[in-house]
Design a protein that fits this description.
The complex is a heterodimer of chains A (116) and B (111). Helices cover 0% and strands 52% of the residues of chain A. Chain A is built from no helices and eleven strands. Helices cover 0% and strands 47% of the residues of chain B. Chain B is globular. The chains are: A mainly beta (116), B mainly beta (111). Chain A binds chain B through residues 2, 4, 31, 33, 35, 42-45, 48, 55-56, 58, 88, 90, 92, 94, 97-100, 103-110, 112, and chain B through 34, 36, 38, 41-46, 49, 87, 92-103.
């Protein structure tokens, strides 16, 4: 158990819908990362937040957005869903971003999104 | 971040040491070598990381060659629960926090 929690574990929805994935980082971690894992693309970095502020963006679609709240939990919002958005979505957290031993990322168990 | 090359798959007998190689010939002096594994569709699990010295923890040992162009992850006594995809990732220590995952090595532990 990494200490990172994600809800829900599974999500089944239809094309065109909007969903919200939630992540609670490990106690004391300030940085949250979102990754997507699809069959054809592997594990890809989407976006990172540090202490409530967006810090880095990866291959995140404009239909996707995220935020980190004052209690440090984060939400990933996916809208206008398409079949190709079906994937595992992982959240990771670290104490601090980008520096030394404290930035090791620990991953949550993921949310499996199925778009029908 | 430097690119890594890993074998696509490997087998190891249960109870033996599993040695997983990784080539990172273009690694820079400020880049760490990280290892993660992913068991089935679970979240990636951090194993170990190092800069240039060999490292050991309760899960594994990491051996980095003197020129730092390759490394080996060693699981000393493999069990069936070690069957997973193992990712070797090279990452700058400062300024680029994302992890770039390749295709990894699918390690199968044989009973």
């Amino acid at each position: 158990d990494s200490g990172v929690t994600q809800t829900p574990k599974h999500l089944i929805t239809a094309t065109g819908q909007r969903v919200t994935l939630r992540c609670s980082p490990r106690s004391g971690d300030l940085s949250v990362y979102w990754y997507q894992q699809s069959l054809d693309q592997g594990l890809q970095f989407l976006i990172q937040y540090y202490n409530g502020e967006e810090r880095a963006k990866g291959n995140i679609l404009e239909r996707f957005s995220a935020q980190q709240f004052p209690d440090l939990h984060s939400e990933l919002n996916l809208s206008s869903l398409e079949l190709g958005d079906s994937a595992l979505y992982f959240c990771a957290s670290s104490v601090v971003p980008g520096g030394g031993l404290g930035d090791t990322q620990y991953f949550g168990p993921g949310t499996r999104l199925t778009v029908l | 971040d430097a690119k890594t090359t890993q074998p696509t798959s490997m087998d190891c007998a249960e109870g033996r040491a599993a040695n997983l190689p990784c080539n990172h010939s273009t690694i820079s002096g400020n880049e760490y070598v990280y290892w993660y594994r992913q068991i089935h569709s679970q979240g990636p699990q951090y194993i170990i990381h190092g800069l240039k010295n060999n490292e050991t923890n309760e899960m594994a040992s990491l051996i980095i060659t003197e020129d730092r162009k390759s490394s080996t992850l060693i699981l000393p006594h493999a069990t069936l629960r070690d069957t997973a995809v193992y990712y070797c990732i090279v990452r700058v220590a400062f300024g680029n926090e994302k992890l770039t995952f390749g295709t990894g090595t699918r390690l199968t532990i044989i009973p």
